[in-house]
Write a structure and sequence with these properties.
It is found in: Membrane. This protein is mainly alpha-helical. The protein is built from 7 helices and 2 strands; from the N terminus they run H-E-E-H-H-H-H-H-H. The chain has a two-stranded antiparallel ribbon. A hairpin with a 2-residue loop joins strand 1 and strand 2. The longest helix is centred in the first third of the chain and has 26 residues. The protein is globular, with a radius of gyration of 18 Å. It starts with a helix and ends with a helix.
Length: 192
């Protein structure tokens, strides 16, 4: 297993730790920050999430730079991304920090696009991620991070940056999903 795939695997291995931190009744105290209170366990979970998210950039960069792109990496990388984001959003619902309807829309798009990619792969077609899809992912990761951090460092200003980035992620998710299907509808036609 090459280094980029090991980095991707480390992201997958961080997911259960992240889940346990937010699922177990841990009370490590909290910090008062601005107009809000930040539970320390949310801070630690956010750090793990941010580190895991950073490995997504790192494994891709390293694989491209050293020409180490493999089929295993093509499989593991998007799966790790979906597992991490899905786990985070579901836990945010459980914690009462994100509206369920919004998360359902975001995750539905993710599963629909994954399904389209699977159909394309069956036809021998590789569907690349669009720049809008990359912005969507960026705002998803930002929203999860800011929500877990209870809007820190913007909590001093009283800005609900977590919800703002979550709604931006929602808008980009829907637009990029529609765009993705319009641009790649030929894959569905050709698979008949």
């Amino acid at each position: 297993m090459n280094i980029p795939n090991r980095i991707t695997l480390s992201r997958i291995l961080l997911i259960p730790i992240f889940i346990l931190l937010l699922s177990l009744p841990l009370d490590w105290g909290s910090w008062s920050i601005g107009t809000t209170t930040l539970p320390i366990v949310h801070f630690v979970a956010a750090l793990i999430f941010i580190i895991a998210s950073g490995t997504d950039w790192l494994d891709g960069y390293y694989a491209r730079k050293h020409n180490l792109i493999t089929n295993l990496g093509k499989f593991l990388d998007p799966m790790a991304d979906k597992l991490l984001v899905t786990a985070a959003y579901v836990l945010l619902i459980e914690l009462g920090l994100a509206p369920a309807w919004l998360v359902i829309v975001i995750l539905s798009r993710e599963f629909a696009v994954t399904g389209l990619r699977l159909v394309a792969a069956g036809e021998g077609i590789v569907l690349a991620a669009s720049s809008m899809g990359k912005w969507k992912t960026t705002f998803q990761l930002l929203s999860i991070s800011f929500i877990l951090l209870h809007n820190f460092p913007f909590s001093y200003l009283g800005w609900p940056i977590g919800l703002i980035t979550l709604y931006i992620a929602l808008i980009l998710t829907v637009i990029s999903g529609v765009d993705y299907f319009i641009k790649n509808w030929h894959v569905m036609k050709e698979s008949n």
